[in-house]
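Can you give me the bound-state structure? Components:
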Amino acid sequence: MTSFLPPAFIFIAGAALIPFLNGRLRQAYMILLPCLAFLNLLNMPEGNSWVLNFWEYQLTFARVDKLSMVFAYIFVIMSFAGAIFALHEKDKMQLTAAFLYAGSSLGVVFAGDLLTLFIFWEIMAFASVCLVFARDTQAAIKAAFRYIMVHLFGGLLLLIGILMHVAETGSLEFNLIGLDGLASVFILLGFALNAAIPPLSAWLTDAYPESTVIGTVFLSAFTTKTAVYTLARGFAGTEILMWAGITMIIYGIVFAILENDMRRVLSYSIINQVGFMIVGIGIGTTLAINGAASHAFAHILYKALLMMSAGAVLYLTGRSRCTELGGLYKTMHWTLIFCLVGAASISSFPLTGGFTTKSMIASAAGHEHITIIWLLLTLASAGVFLHAGIKFPYFVFFAKDSGLRPSEKDLPVNMLVAMGFLSFMCILIGVYPQVLYQLLPYPVDYVPYTGDHVVSQLQLLMFSALAFFMLLKYLKRTETLTLDTDWFYRRGAKIVVAALAIPVSWTHNKLGYIFLEKIPNFVIWFGKNPLGAIKIGADTLVVSMVGGKEAKKRLEQEKAAYPGVLKQWSISSAVAIAMVLFAAYMMLFFFR
Amino acid sequence: MNKIVEYFERPEVGKAVRYIFYASLVLLLIAELFIEKHPYFHWAAFPTFFAVYGFFACAVIIAVSKLLGKFWLQKGEDYYD
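Here's the bound-state model for the whole set.
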């Protein structure tokens, strides 16, 4: 049919083979899959292909244009880096889930219609939750259940939106939707949940840090960025997204500063960084959309790099709380260097990927003269440096010496290679951004390296660093957790359950008492001497109506004597009665 | 590698790093005078704008976060157990 396969098929079909391969063969295979997918991407001509007829609708599995391609490239590059990072892993469930997850995100990116998108969207949710379950601790399993419940809810919102949209427009095609009518609200909410826009964001910081060393690396890349893609496709220029993005940015910084677990700090940082992209989508100009797409590209690289370095620390020390870490620079040299490259990138230091991409979004706000957004974006750039650029490396690798001396020799060498690869990529798009710019959805007329840009950015960052070290004593880590909107289903739900449970269990107890104790006991009591029981019943009725002390006393005696001595039947008379009953049954049976 | 780490652990080198940091701050402020500016907003062209804004942005972020954490958001680690 065509000269290429939809990349999602390569990964999803490829994932199915992983459980059957072992040792070196599996390692080679895991490297081969992303390479194949990459070659395949190079062969994909623009336009729609792999179109399937489904009733009166058309399902498009390969809608190839600039916007889908830039996300596809970074997803495949990320899968490659992730596969290297995971080479030593023997848990096949994790590896299979990781490839299924990456494949389904590619499926979403290339989906030309809403139904295909929805199907891959749901596969993504199930594949990603496996990566959380894989940690197999009590906390991880609980977090995974919460994660999948939230995502099923989000999937339902999306499905409702899609069905309403199809009913209204008669078309399944996925193009610019825009905020217009109830259907688009539901679709937007479904996308927003995966993009982790507060208050629909707590699933991310709840579950990601509970996943495995490898799982978190994959998780950090795909779910939120597919949502960024769908929002850029369906809701570019929707103004409310600008404010949603600003909320994410501020919220991410505040919570990351309060958080103690290093991987949770980085997870809040994801929300903060995705916020920048969402602002870009909300502004919606070509520069802003370019900024959002290129920032997604760069962010996947450096966030995966940071998650890998945090993963390496967790792998060697088994700890992830900042309060229990520190002083690791003494032995974890390479991890530290790679981590610093990631930290510099996320803070947009010149010569790193963050600088050449994120600055586009602020510039877009500047071009449109949206003062408050520009001011907040600039404030947030300082805040990013604060929480991710300095705080994370400082408390993990420096600060007070925890006494831990993990040896990097115990770290699988492939983990270091993966970090090295991503560091190289971060710097590559920092010093030679044209590689990335030529992939962007719109032609790029943007020069990142002007004296003005470089000096003002460096001033902003270095004086933020000054503020960090001057206020260090207020930033000391505390052994606390931070309340987030998951409170509503972790604590709030308990209150709701209690409120519902009390009347329900009261009714249940009452009914149980009546049907399981009262009535059976009465039947037993009645069966002991039916005639006597009826007599007691009749006497009670009479006494209650007529009264009289004597009668009452006699009734008491009667009750005390119950069931009394019953008339003993001889066997022959009992048999005779039974025979009569049988005969009666037979008559009934024949003549009814 | 270990040699480099040991070198940086020396107190006099630590001090030197700190002075280099301060010097770079001053250098950045001076450098601003020699570059051509094309700001999006005229007030952003004011000298030291980014330095002052960055510093105070961080101070405000830290203060607001700490207050929120102390009076509302931060709980003991066994809160949900």
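A couple of observations. The two ends of chain A are 73 Å apart (CA to CA). Residues 236-482 of chain A form one domain.
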